[in-house]
Sequence to fold (879 residues):
Amino acid sequence: MARFLLKRLALALVTLVLVSVLVFAVAQVLPGNVGRNVLGGFATPAAVAQLNHQLGVDRPLWTQYWSWVSNFAQGNLGTSLEYRVPVWSLLQASLVNSLKLAAVAFVLVVPLSIIGGVFAALRRGRLADRVITLTGLSLTAIPEFVSAIVLILVFGLALRVLPVDATAPPGAGFLTQVKYLLLPAAALTLVLFGYIARMARAGTIEALDSDYTRTAYLKGLRTHTVIRRHVLRNSLLPTIAVIATQMGYLIGGLVVIEKLFNYNGIGQRIYTAAQNKDFTMLQSSVLVIAIVYLTASLIADLIYSLLNPRIRYGGTS
Amino acid sequence: MDHEARRRLEEYRRKGAGPFENALIDDYSAGAIDRRELMRRAGLLGISVPAIGLVLRAFGEPAPAFGAARAAATGSRIRVGIIPPPSGAIEPSTISDLGGLQTIGIAGEFLARATQSKTLLPELATSWKTNKSATVWTFKLRPNVTFQSGQPLTSADVVATWQRLATTGSAALSAIGGYVTPDGIVAVDDLTVAFHLETPVSNFPYLVSSTTYQGIILPASYQTGTFVSKPQTTGAFQLAAYTPGVSATYNRYAGWWGGTAPLAGVDVTYYTAAAAADAALLGGDVDLLGQVQLATDRALFNNGSVKIFSARGSTHREVPIRVDENNPFHDYRVRQAVALTLNRPQIVKTLFNDLAEVGNDSPFAPIFGLARSVPQRKQNIRQAKQLLEAAGHAKGFSAKLVTEQLGEIPELAQIIQSSVKQIGIDLSLSILSVDAYYAGTQTGPPKGWGDTPWLNAEIDITDYGSRAVPNVFLTSALETKGVWNAAHYSNKKFDAAVKSFLGAATFDDQDKYAVTLQKILLHDTPVIFPYFYYYLAAGTPSVSGYSADAVGQLYLSKTSLT
Fold:
């Protein structure tokens, strides 16, 4: 198990280095001059050059990369070129907000999708299966900004039962914060339900058709015992992998949802940073998301290995 | 006639009034102008509201009612949506965007505040006057004003603030550059400041009023970069917290010279998407949106639960046409033909639902009341075709219009495209993001106009914010050496008339030069000014005591929630 963990950690580290190189390179090819962008169009070329020097963006690329990445490794994410404040002071709140939204969405979508998928598999070919499968597929096909607007119109403006702004007032309690996050989380649930439910359904059908399930029935075990002990344990393995891959999207990829619900999440931070050529903010934010994503994948691997001893002990799955 | 009022007027004429004020009072007393005209001209010349009141009372007329303090102190906090968030750090001297000016403007105050009716209300200055040549303007400061730090306001603070704004790197230079240098701003005594100008400017008080939004008065000890870290303005609200791109919190300042503001505080939320801001207002999450537009916020218009606040102003779009390139636009007749294809009343109806006024291809917006004797240019396709034929382009030609993805501008571009098609001009459109449109260098003359698209396209459409006086539109956008002269227009007669206009001592003189400028621009047509639109804000019916401001200032000191 320790070897398995070490191997995964080493891979994560390599991935992070690659991501840092990639995001640094991408930031460099974005059009625009940092000094010009900060000082505006009417600043003299000398003033622009002076600011670029002050910000260190006129140094060789390798020096800039090493300076950024070595500081990042020591916990210093740099200073925002746009706002002139430490990146972490802005990113921290955005990351916490994104984690909160992801958590609420996760709590909604995971149980609903798994229950839906397993139920559809158990009712394979019947009306319930068709309804769940088709509904899920249809919802997945609807872009998130469309479902979000419909939710805002219905629950925020027509019925007025939920706030349309996802940011709770300062000092709001846990339940109030959840209430503010319900609409964006619901929009995400609609998008992800079909995908995860289909995976859960497929995994469950495969497990139901397997020899070990037949053997369990032949042993005289009752249906719910067979499903709990044998079917779910095996059928959820691919579903867990799928859920883990969605974590990156749930935390860093919700630009549209965050814009529609005016939520200060990390997706919006990255979008604004890219728009304003705030390279330090952009690079550090992407790397933070990569860390979160890799952590989620690692946790998923651990759960996977706990459910599947063949992984744990170095076998093949 | 009230003798006491008359005595005070005479005293004012002797001690307080300058030559402009006295000339105007003479016109009014001789019956040459009526009350309305007096107020309009006083506005154009930067004469303060109390001075106008003094004149009116002396002649038995009621004084204008501006800014009457509201007694009710509800103690509520107002939730305000600002769209878009400030770009960059919050630093008054470099602010040049709407989000930024609204953020600093809630806490800050100016020497004078421009009103919707084109008059100046004294704010931190109580009065001002000039010498005969309009080259020295002297401002008397309000006594007993304290900064939110507790430090008293003196002339040293005003001098330091404006010296900072007159220095290279300040965004306020677009308004005062060329008129005043740091050395020209001096303290006369503890409560008097004099601005010695490089050139005569008869409406100078406007340039140091709220219309130059960087001009928030800060302590002499102010250090750049500390605006959000500690309260150091004089306004009714002090900035308590600021999170870039997310929110700002202001609390009522108990030591405000104006008394107790009705609101206990202001909670600002920044929005990046109009749809989210609209939903927040309609859903009851905010009370007031600092700016709305018909093009992007249609859901708020004709909605019973939304109050629209509007302010006439000089906000407009300019359509500069390069006059210096070797193409058909080089001929003034072709530029005239393009301008004649536009059905301006229809454009105003379509794009603004009539919340705008047609332009006459000059920067003299109707609100300025200048050059109104020159007939309005109207759509005339037959004449446009004749002009094109006379210029040797009877069969038309192709050209490319470059503009930005902002507000209603793409729709205006399409309207222009279909309009000029009627006379055979095939106009292709290149609509860039705002960033791309303003990208590149734009260092201005004498080195040229850099390589930025907005100053170098053969024809483009550019957004211009409101100004209380047309000075900057004339100098920066149309003069030969103007830094925003996107048409690359050069006309010595025009430049000379601009200089005369800026130094004109009376309204009649200003109007005379404005007529000259208007006629030159109609003939040369370097820039099409299709319309001037109203500044719009939106709120819930519970918002009272708030007036929209043409520049976009969010002045909430007299606002309350009912």
